[in-house]
Specification:
Elements (H helix, E strand, L loop, with lengths): L1 H10 L5 H5 L11 H7 L12 H9 L4 H17 L22 E2 L13 H28 L11 H27 L9 E2 L1 H7 L5 H29 L3 H32 L3 H12 L4 E2 L4 H6 L4 H4 L3 E2 L1
Helix pairs in contact: 4-5, 4-6, 5-7, 6-7, 7-10, 9-10, 9-11
Bound molecules: fe (ii) ion (2 copies).
Length: 317
């Protein structure tokens, strides 16, 4: 909960020096969706979904990225301040609504990634990341709507929804931040093809909360922690400090997403009487169609309370 408490202060006037130093007070975060939201008068009660699950469904069935971001930020704020208070129930769609562009291709049909040093390479990198963040918005809402209970059938506490709504809100801001950088380079999300691997990985775990947590936050988002520092270096070398700063913000916040995955995976293990480490390894071998590539970003992973002896035995060079 420490991570969550720390991030909450960023939304308010008490933004701490640490947050400001990391760029929260910089023009990079303006005029993003936060300012847009701040400029809006509070939505009338009737404009909000009756329950959090209805809110999740509304986002999942919205195709336009900017609207998906706007609704996510609106509903997350409403959940935090109690204007949406009930969890409700919902059956989330197998696949969320997607815009006509970008064209979705199989991973093997994607063009080769260019070097980030060129303008085209930077656009391709930011576009690929914007696509991941858009998927991540839906993944966070999906987990809220799809999984109301722990494996033993007990209702998940409010802290579970609080965490994943906060993740959805972060991912919406991340997508908007990347779209802003793309726009600054004369491009937009949708200009290039994208691949559908992330959502396919989540579909494989739609039946089971521990499997979903094992794969999505604790494999895929943790992998993001491993690869982002090299991208930041590359963007700095390319003379694009604004894009590098955006990726640093994203990296730092993704630590709390991995931490949420780790925390709720532990809750599942405790409720099931399982050893969390060996169960996670078993679920990853069963449900993750890939390998855990080294090198791991151990400092960032340990900030997420993700111990090396969980993932080290599964790592490949
Ligand atoms: Fe993100
Ligand atoms: Fe994330």
């Amino acid at each position: 909960m420490r991570e969550r408490g720390r991030r909450r202060t960023r939304e308010g006037a008490e933004e701490d020096a640490e947050g400001a130093a990391r760029g929260w007070a910089s023009p990079l975060t303006e005029p993003g969706p936060r300012r847009h939201l701040a400029a809006m008068s509070p939505a009338p009660i009737s404009a909000l979904p009756a329950t959090l699950c209805d809110a999740a469904l509304a986002v999942l069935t919205t195709a336009a990225p900017a609207e998906k971001v706007r609704l996510t930020r609106l509903y997350a704020a409403a959940w935090r301040d109690g204007r949406i208070a009930a969890l409700g129930t919902a059956r989330p769609p197998a696949r969320p609504a997607r815009p006509e562009r970008p064209e979705l291709r199989l991973p093997r049909d994607m063009p080769k990634r260019r070097k980030a040093q060129s303008l085209a390479g930077r656009i391709a990198l930011l576009h690929a990341l914007a696509h991941i963040e858009l998927n991540a918005i839906d993944l966070a809402w999906d987990i809220v709507a799809r999984f109301p209970t722990l494996p033993d059938g007990t209702a998940l506490p409010r802290g579970f929804q609080d965490d994943w709504v906060q993740v959805a809100d972060d991912e919406a801001r991340h997508h908007a931040l990347l779209e802003q950088r793309l726009n600054a380079l004369g491009a937009s999300y949708g200009d290039l093809p994208a691949h559908d691997g992330l959502w396919q990985a989540s579909e494989a775990t739609a039946h089971d909360l521990p499997a979903r947590l094992a794969v999505v936050p604790l494999v895929l988002e943790a992998r993001g922690l491993d690869v982002t520092p090299a991208m930041i270096d590359s963007l700095n070398r390319a003379g694009d400090p604004a894009a590098a700063e955006a990726l640093q913000i994203i990296h730092d916040e993704e630590i709390s997403h991995v931490a949420a995955g780790r925390r709720w995976f532990q809750a599942c293990a405790d409720a099931s009487g399982r050893d969390a480490q060996s169960w996670w390894q078993e679920l990853v071998r069963t449900w993750f169609n890939g390998v855990l590539k080294r090198p791991f970003n151990e400092p960032s992973r340990s900030r997420a309370d993700f111990p090396a002896d969980w993932y080290e035995p599964l790592g490949v060079a």
